[in-house]
Amino acid sequence: MKMLFALAVALAVASPATAGYHYTTVDGPSSASLLGTVVTSINDAGLAAGYYVNDDGVGGPGNYTAFTVNKDGSGFYSFSRPGYAQTGAAGIDNAGDVTGVSVTSLGHGTGFVRSGADGSYADIDPNLDPTFGVTSLYSEAIGLNNLGAVTGYYTTDPAATVGTLAQYAHGFIEFGGVYTAVDVDPLDGYGTQVTSINDLGLFTGTYLDNSADHFSHPFLGVFAPGAGAAIIALDTDPFGAPSSSIGNITDNFYSTYNSLYPCACSPTGFASAAYVLDVAFGGYEPIAVPGAFFTNVFGINQSTDVTGYYLDPTGLHGFVASWVPEPASWLMMIAGFGLTGVMLRRRERGFAQGFVARG
What we know:
This protein is mainly beta.
């Protein structure tokens, strides 16, 4: 038996599992007017959220509809907030609560949290906090953690339109009905958006720099109820890209990250390199959908399932990427340990029958 056990271990060690991401495409309902789909977030149970866009018929940015879907592509469920022309989903927690923005026919946006239990909506808008001291004209809820903290941005500037919201954005964190402002120092940039917050209070966001091109850059911060929020690091892209953004961050300090480069290789004039970053200890894993012009990432859960979108010759598609070992490696490991199992059953029946759980 010792020889067979050694053989099993040798098979497993000599053929280590070569891990990689498996990509599942997620598209909105098939329609001639479907312009694209984006998967924005995913919780630890593998339930993802996002939105798809249909042509509005008048040359505008399109009509947004929110959805949830399982990470294998099953269970696709669309939803729209009653009384609003458009609904987009941004974040999802482990209870299935979803953040996003609901937009009127006049283009006024209000952030929301949609309950996973009963589908009811609660507004996320700095106007609801009289101590905050602003009059928000547009707000959007982006991230949320499992403790009830919500992140997002708002604008008070009437010059802001759908295409320029990022330039006028101010970040916030909402917890228990109290809103805390998050803005980078004007000397560093402007247009702050807080994109996510984990259960430990570490949050991520993106701001625009003061250059003529207004490139975007990520930042990290810490939030504690009653103590406020503080930005602790303004990041420069570790891959040398002029513009970059950071997505969700997990409790084990993994985050999604995008680097943007000018490139004639893409119809958009830009190429995006996407990664999963180990924020605490360094290291990264590229995320790239095969055959795509570029891939952008947003959401990530504790199992490092990743969400985002990609552009290929057929259009804009959402995706969920799941981390899995290669099938060949699994077979080699199973075969190796299977040999051990045979001998254990033959020679160690007494031991196996006498093994019981101990309290």
